[in-house]
Amino acid sequence: MHTAPRLTALAAAALLAGCSFIPTYERPAAPLPAGYTLAGPALAADAPAATAIDWKDYFTDARLQRLVGMALANNRDLRVAMLNVDQARAQFQIRRADQFPTVSALANATRQPNTSGQYANQFQVGVGITAWEIDFFGRIAALKEQALAQYLATDEARKSAQISLVSAVASGWLTLCADEELLDLSRRTLQTREQSLQLTRLRLDNGISSELDYAQALSLAQSARATLAQQQRQRLLDENALVLLLGQALPEDIRASLTSARLEDNSPMQPLPVGLPSDLLTRRPDIRMAEQQLIGANANIGAARAAFFPRIALTAQFGSVSSELSGLFKSGSWAFSLAPQAALPIFDAGRNQANLDAAMVGRDIALAQYEKSIQSAFREVSDALAGLDTLRQEIDAQTALVDANRRSLELADLRYRNGVASHLDLLDAQRSLFGSEQALVAARLQQQLNQVAMYKVLGGGWTQQPQGEEDAPQS
User: Fold this and answer.
1) Tens digit of pLDDT for each residue in 53-83?
2) Burial of 171 (0-12, 13-18, 19+ CB in 10 A)
3) 337 contacts 316 by C-beta, under 8 angstroms
4) Integer Cα distance of 250 and 240 in angstroms
5) Dist CA 431 CA 466 (whole Å)
6) Terminus-to-terminus CA distance in the chain, angstroms?
7) What is the pLDDT confidence band of residue 315, given thresholds at 50, 70 and 90?
8) Taking phi first (over 0 means left), then psi (-120 to 50 degrees means alpha), and beta for anything else, what does residue 222 get?
9) Confidence class of residue 11 from pLDDT cuts 50, 70 and 90?
10) Which of 32, 3, 455 is nearest to 276 (CA)?
11) Pick from 4, 184, 267, 308: CA 20 to 30 A from residue 26's CA?
12) What is the DSSP-derived secondary structure letter of residue 251?
């Protein structure tokens, strides 16, 4: 007669066990335009995507590859990012373990006086489950989903950190190459101006030049000397920045090779297809990280909603009890106890509602951060695109300007030596040539840094390892 009610109760429990109050997640519409506004001709669409190109294939300089490998092995920020993944994995394992009962071995011995004034002994051994929460309303499952999303977000953060590190090392290396080129230019310019100063002094001693000519030549030589000191200081600062990225000192053979480094001699980086702005949603780890954080915030709402419903806990023990130690495990000494408990919140001064409100606001914050990450990614790609053709045009114009200034200096020097032009014309030609040569180095550096940035903002620098999928925690 009691079979039907019991089956009904079990069916109801099974139904409730599958209950979840997590809102259905749908990826929000991306706040992006349909395409980019290219500053130049469209890139080749048949080239592989940045995410499919390993950094060793994009940065082909052997010295740079060596430096990137050193940074990936020794950089402390990347090491922290990897440890954060391990920590998030452990937190997920903790949440997943909450769904299962914890079975513990129990042993107890007591000695106390009885009603007759004599001492009585009691020995107990067995196994037990203490306050295991049966997740009828999905609170623990929601917390587990939140922990899983946090783990996935942390893993995406690690990928993003690797991309940033690879691009930072490449940028640091190119900057050092530019520093060496500018140092060489400054040394040659100082040498030329000191020779010009000696010539002017000789002309002054012979009454051909004036004190003003000598003062102007001296001023130009001292300006070149000051510029050289600035370049030497900047070179040391940029090397220190690169050393921090590497996590160790710059190898001596690579430092020695920098003396002959020239930006125009660097291996060209291959063109990358831009694709559509929507491609960023799957290519960029930082966007995927923000989406996982949004999924986790969405799961928190389910946990906050489940807190309004009863929490059902189960405590159980099974073992042997005897007044004599030798009587344990004998027939008739075995016993078990089962103690379910249900707690329904009646009055909590608005705590549960406040937790739900906080979870809802947290989801809105995560949504805004997700949308901001998409917009920031679009802006970064657009900025890199803006430099593709314009920097090429700038370098062409700057190269022509250097050639023109070099020819102008040759003519000014010839005219000055023949007494046709003034010394001021010669000084102006020297200043113009030095400035245009510095600007040409800066433009070449900016173009190569823009290529590095293009690889980074399109999601390059990270290649998914197949074994990484096997290590992912199972939900």
Assistant:
1) 899 999 999 999 999 999 999 999 999 999 9
2) buried
3) yes
4) 9
5) 57
6) 41
7) confident
8) alpha
9) very low
10) 32
11) 308
12) P
